[in-house]
Structures are given as structure tokens and as C-alpha cells.
Design goal:
5 helices
Length: about 150
């Protein structure tokens, strides 16, 4: 005869292994992320890495020689900031895929059972619980198109 609690633990452990594999894959992808931006006048292209570090700075023409130092500095600053923002968006999107993982693991463990009902009064005392509950409800409605 199978123990239902042991089955829940086994399922949760499998879910955790799956999430760990996804997290390791995401980490490897994040380490390779880059973003490139070319200035509007096509004078320069900047390539940055996942932490915003400059990987390449390529001048396509010698037009930079004709620019005033302040103008060239502003151009480089704008292009660098835009590239950093692009890579930041990529990082945020990849990390956002893990939103709700803790909730799903908890539910897989409790099975949405009486334990959730039993702990509800304790959870409701936590600061910000009402806002969190509203966000979860909205997320579930969006998930199911309701």
C-alpha cells in the first residue's frame, strides 16, 4: 500500500529537480547574454554583456573625430545606457519565468489540501498578505483567461 504523503514528497522532489535543472539552464543562458546598440547616426555600435560590462565598442566611420568631446561623450553614454537597458530587459524576462515557482512547489506538497485552510489564519496575519492574495487571484484569473 502506497503512502500518500510519501507520494507527495516524491512528486515535490521531482518538481524541485525539474526547477533546479531549469534554473541551471537559465544561469548558463544569462552568462552568455549580450545586447548591441548602434547610434542613430550609425557612428558607433556598443555591445554589452549580462552585467552591463562593455564587450565591444566599434566606430564605423571616422566621424567621431569631428564631434566635440561633450557631444561624443553624450552619444557614447546614450548608446551604452540603451544597450545596458536591453540586456537588463533580457535578464528580467528570463528570471521572470521563475515567478510563482515557490507557490507551485508548496501546492504540490500540500496538494491544496486542508493544510492550506489550516494555515490561512496565520498567513493572513503577515504584513502585505491581502495585497499578495489579490495578486495571486489576478494571476490565476489571467492564467485561465478569466
Amino acid at each position: 500500500m502506497s503512502n500518500p504523503f510519501a507520494d507527495q514528497i516524491a512528486q515535490t522532489m521531482e518538481a524541485m529537480r525539474t526547477q533546479l535543472a531549469k534554473a541551471e539552464e537559465a544561469q548558463a543562458e544569462l552568462e552568455k547574454l549580450t545586447a548591441s546598440v548602434t547610434s542613430k547616426d550609425r557612428l558607433v555600435t556598443v555591445k554589452v554583456g549580462p552585467q552591463g560590462q562593455v564587450l565591444a565598442l566599434t566606430f564605423h566611420t571616422t566621424g567621431y573625430r569631428e564631434k566635440a568631446p561633450a557631444e561624443l561623450g553624450a552619444l557614447l553614454t546614450d548608446v551604452l545606457n540603451e544597450a545596458r537597458a536591453k540586456v537588463g530587459e533580457q535578464v528580467a524576462a528570463r528570471i521572470g519565468e521563475f515567478e510563482g515557482v515557490a507557490d507551485s512547489l508548496r501546492l504540490s506538497m500540500t496538494g491544496g489540501s486542508e493544510l492550506d485552510d489550516l494555515l490561512e489564519p496565520l498567513w493572513s496575519m503577515r504584513p502585505g498578505y491581502a495585497d499578495e492574495a489579490d495578486r495571486k487571484k489576478t494571476r490565476k484569473q489571467e492564467e485561465f483567461g478569466g
